[in-house]
Design goal:
Length: 391
């Protein structure tokens, strides 16, 4: 036996959620966003599970893309921030990665370099988020410049929405209007929708969706939303009780001794802590599930252990499984208790926690390629790159 902390990943739930995105926008293609190791779920495993269904994948950087190529993933992979250094361009062309272009310095680099074959680019407009992207007044000229470059193949027009998770924020309409004005007359596919927009802003669907969080079954919203309610949670984080003690009123628990029992209490210690990525800011009362019943944290989370109240669960014993989020306890609810968002919880799960892949009966698996270790990417570097479907 070993330490019991683990994260069960239900790949069929991810497939179900991807298919839900596509059903909501039947005329659109969708890049499955699997950056940050698929939000902590394991990028290679998720890519393999989606391989028969996904139109393309998206990651944040070339290292993440190469990990997928080395694992035999041959679908297009979009780099959401493009390249950071000019010398990445060669690899981008060779591996047939799609490349976001968000800044003039990237265009200068594209002009200077001689690439063995053109690359497909996604030209990002800054429609109001003000992190990266071409300013609206420069968008059309930048587009025309790109079109004239030998190094550039197809161009997709893209922007990113800052407030799509706020259902009555005026920002989203303003950003969509900005995008439409800046891209008026340009004959190219468009991409605006993250998970929140996929679920709630059909006017942002366009040609290419970019769902991320929803694939993993958490809602991007803080309130119930019709479509989000159909998502299936992909990660179940759990561990086991390793000790139980009976405490008296006045006894304190954990570091800082700042939780003090008001009544005689039965307290269980569980092998889970911030060293596993469980959030230290989870306060007393943050829910957990034991044997199908809810109880809560008591005292501070430490690196390898935390404590839960089992006073009302007299049959709880050493060895029992404790679920921290997943099939029986929503990640969204836990995130609320921790004053954070589901994104930080799942991406924060550390290497120490083994991911165990399971397939529920919720959806039939897609065509999952057998472990293709050692297999080449299957991409012929001499070939003319296939064009980006318009959807
Ligand atoms: C991360 C990311 C997404 C996915 O966002 P979710 O809210 O997880 O759906 C989409 N587009 C871009 C540009 C991103 O960086």
């Amino acid at each position: 036996m070993s330490r019991a902390a683990s994260a069960d990943i239900d790949l069929n739930a991810i497939l179900h959620n991807y298919r839900l995105a596509k059903r909501l926008a039947p005329a659109s293609c969708a890049v499955a966003v699997i950056k940050a190791d698929a939000y902590g779920h394991g990028a290679v495993a998720v890519a393999r599970a989606l391989h028969g269904d996904a139109d393309a994948f998206a990651v944040a950087c070339i290292e993440e893309a190469l990990e997928l190529r080395e694992a035999g993933i041959t679908l297009p992979i979009l780099l959401l921030e493009g390249f950071f250094e000019e010398d990445e361009l060669e690899t981008i062309a060779r591996e047939q990665l799609w490349c976001t272009i968000h800044s003039p310095h990237q265009i200068e680099a594209l002009k200077r370099t001689r690439l063995p074959q053109p690359i497909h680019v996604w030209l990002k407009l800054d429609s109001g988020m003000h992190r990266v992207g071409i300013s609206p007044p420069d968008y059309q000229t930048t587009y025309n410049t790109l079109r004239g470059l030998q190094n550039v193949g197809d161009v997709v027009l893209m922007t990113h929405l800052a407030c799509a998770d706020e259902l009555n924020s005026p920002n989203t309409d303003a950003q969509i209007a900005c995008f439409d004005a800046a891209s008026a007359g340009l004959e190219a596919p468009a991409s605006l929708a993250n998970s929140a927009a996929t679920l709630a802003w059909p006017q942002a669907h366009r040609n290419w969706l970019r769902p991320g969080m929803m694939l993993y079954g958490a809602s991007p919203f803080t309130h119930p939303q019709d479509h989000a309610d159909h998502l299936q949670p992909a990660m179940t984080l759990h561990s086991r009780i390793i000790a139980i003690r009976d405490l008296q009123a006045g006894d304190s628990i954990g570091y800082g001794a700042d939780y003090v029992c008001k009544h005689p209490s039965r307290v269980a210690t569980v092998a889970m802590g911030y060293g596993d990525g469980y959030p230290r800011q989870a306060k007393s009362g943050t829910p957990v599930m034991v044997k199908g019943r809810r109880t809560g944290l008591v005292g501070r989370v430490s690196m390898d252990m935390l404590s839960i109240d089992v006073t009302e669960l007299p049959d709880a014993q050493v060895g029992d499984t404790v679920e921290f989020w997943g099939k029986n306890l929503s990640l969204n609810e836990v995130a609320d208790y921790c004053n954070t968002i589901p994104y930080t919880l799942v991406t924060g799960i550390s290497r120490r926690v083994p991911r165990r892949y399971r397939a529920s009966a919720s959806a039939r698996p897609g065509k999952v390629p057998a472990d293709p270790a050692g297999v080449s990417t299957g991409l012929d570097p001499e070939s003319r790159i296939p064009s980006i479907p318009l959807a």
